[in-house]
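Lab manual, section 2.4: Encoding a predicted structure.

Procedure: take the sequence of the chain (240 residues), apply the prediction step described in section 2.3, and record the output as structure tokens. A sample record is shown.
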Amino acid sequence: MDETTESLDRVMVIGAHPDDPEFGCAGTVVKWARAGKSITYVLLTSGDKGSRDPNVRPGQLAAMREDEQRAAAEEIGVEQAIFLRYPDGLLENTLDLRRRLCGILRQHRPHIVMTIDPWRPYQLHPDHRAAGQAALDAIYAAREWTIFPEQLVGDVEPWRVKEAYLFWTDNADYWEDITCCIDTRISALARHASQVGENNERLAERMRQRASEAGALAREKLEQEEGYEYAEEFKRFQFR
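Recorded output:
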């Protein structure tokens, strides 16, 4: 982490579903939370379609998955998890969604936003594409006086996010060494039992393998022989 990143102490993670942050960037979130950063999660849906069991009603599943996300967030050190409760599987980057996210950015004033890379080739899940695009569109809107000006009441002003980190990307240019935090990342992901099951050993093996591959790529790209035993990779934007 460079000096610029260290000075930015409010972070917002915007995902489509509960468990997206844990699958995508939780190792970095753990590391940053331990370093004193304030972390907020924004989940656009509650994952109410995330089961093939016909006996599980969507409302029951949504409540279960929100509870799982809160437990995972607490373990990681996230201060707040906000659920917007758009329908799972039907998420669209609508003007309404962009407006709501813009308002949340102006209210919470994060320095850093982490979200899904909507431009990843062959990104098949429409919710993931929509979530990443809506988050980036809201970053642009939040800084403009003339976009959604009805939100600028009282002390509310436009807000300029300083950096964005896109996870699940095929165009990584930034790596975070999460060797210190890999166990907590896996433990937090295991909280999403409705999605990952109860075989925690298999889950841990899979996540360690992915983080190890990212670490090897980091050492290659950064021309380092040591460090980055486990890593997470991002496409990073710095806004001026």
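Check your result against the sample. The longest strand covers residues 38-45.
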